[in-house]
Amino acid sequence: MDTASDQPLAVLTPGCKVNLHLRIGPKREDGYHELETFFYPLPEPHDVLTIRTGTAGGGCVFSCDPLLPGDGPNLVERAYAEYAKASGFAPDIAVHLEKRIPAGAGLGGGSSDAAAMLRWLEYAAGDKALGETHLARIAVGLGADVPFFLLGEPAWAGGVGDELTPAQMDWGSMTLLLLDPHVHVSTGWAYGAWDGYVMENPAQRIPLTSKAAEHKKTLFPAGTVLGNDFERVVFSGFPALRRLKESLLAEGASVALLSGSGACLFGLFRSPEQAKKAGQRISATPPPGIERLDILCMLEA
C-alpha cells in the first residue's frame, strides 16, 4: 500500500477525439495546413497520466508504458518545458503515462496528453499561472489538436486547428462505433501524400470558406457534409482501411469515416443494437489485410 508521501499529486485521464468533418486547405509558410474540421471528444479510450512528486532539482522525469515510437521528447515533456519557460513554474515531478489510446490512429492521443499536462500545470502554478490566452498560444505551438483538447468540448476548428468555435452535436438517435485496425498511419506521411495528390489534381485547391456564425452552432449546418479529405490518399496507401470502411457500410452504418489521418475508423448507426452486432461481426472476421480489430468505443446518443 502506498504511504501518504507516495500518493499521486494527480491522476489524469485524457480522452481522445474523432473528426466528423475534415477538409484540408493550402499549406502555409510555417509548414502547417489550413483546416476546416469538426472535433468531437470521446471519453474512451483514454490514457492515464499519473503525476507524483519528483526528486529535488530533477524537473520533469517522464516514463511511459508501453514505450512510444519515435525519438526525442514526448509531447507531455514538451508541454512541461514550454510551460516552465513561459511561467517560471517548473515543479519537480515524475510523470508516468499509461498509453491506452493507440498511436498513429487519428484520435489525437498525444495532443490530449499534452493538453492535460498544460491544464494541470496551470492549476498547480498558483500566482504563476499564465491565463487562458497564453496557455492557448503554448498549445498551438505543440500541435494542431492541442488547443481543442484544452477547450474540452465539441467544436468547429479553422486555421491550423487553433481557431475554435464551440458547437453542439445533434446525434439524433445515432450510436458511434469506433474501431482500431492496429495499423499505424503517420500524420506526416498523410499530409505529404495529400500535397502530392493536390499537385496532381489542381482542382482540389479550393479555398476554405468561413461558416456564418449561425451555422457553427451544430454539426449539420446547411451545406455541410460529413467527410474526410485524408481518405483520398490514406485509402490508396492502406487499402485494407478502405475495405474496413466498406464493411461498416455493409453492416448498416449510415456514415463511416476515417478519423483524422487514421488509422481508426468509426461508423454511425441507427441503434445501439445495430452498432453492437456490426462491431461483433466485423471484429470476428476483419476484412483482408487487417489481422486484428478492436472495438474502442460505442457511444450512444
Automatic annotation (TrEMBL):
Positions of ATP binding: 102-112
Function as written in the Swiss-Prot or TrEMBL entry: Catalyzes the phosphorylation of the position 2 hydroxy group of 4-diphosphocytidyl-2C-methyl-D-erythritol.
EC category name: transferase
Active site positions, chain numbering: 17, 145
Entry keyword set: ATP-binding, Isoprene biosynthesis, Kinase, Nucleotide-binding, Transferase
Keyword Oxidoreductase among UniProt keywords: no
Xref: InterPro entries: GHMP_kinase_C_dom, GHMP_kinase_C_sf, GHMP_kinase_N_dom, IspE, Ribosomal_Su5_D2-typ_SF, Ribsml_uS5_D2-typ_fold_subgr
Positions of the GHMP kinase N-terminal domain: 74-152
Claim: Iron-sulfur is one of the keywords in the record: no
Gene Ontology terms, MF aspect: 4-(cytidine 5'-diphospho)-2-C-methyl-D-erythritol kinase activity
One Pfam family this sequence matches: GHMP_kinases_N
Full protein name: 4-diphosphocytidyl-2-C-methyl-D-erythritol kinase
EC number, UniProt record: 2.7.1.148
Annotated catalysed reactions: 4-CDP-2-C-methyl-D-erythritol + ATP = 4-CDP-2-C-methyl-D-erythritol 2-phosphate + ADP + H(+)
Underlying gene: ispE
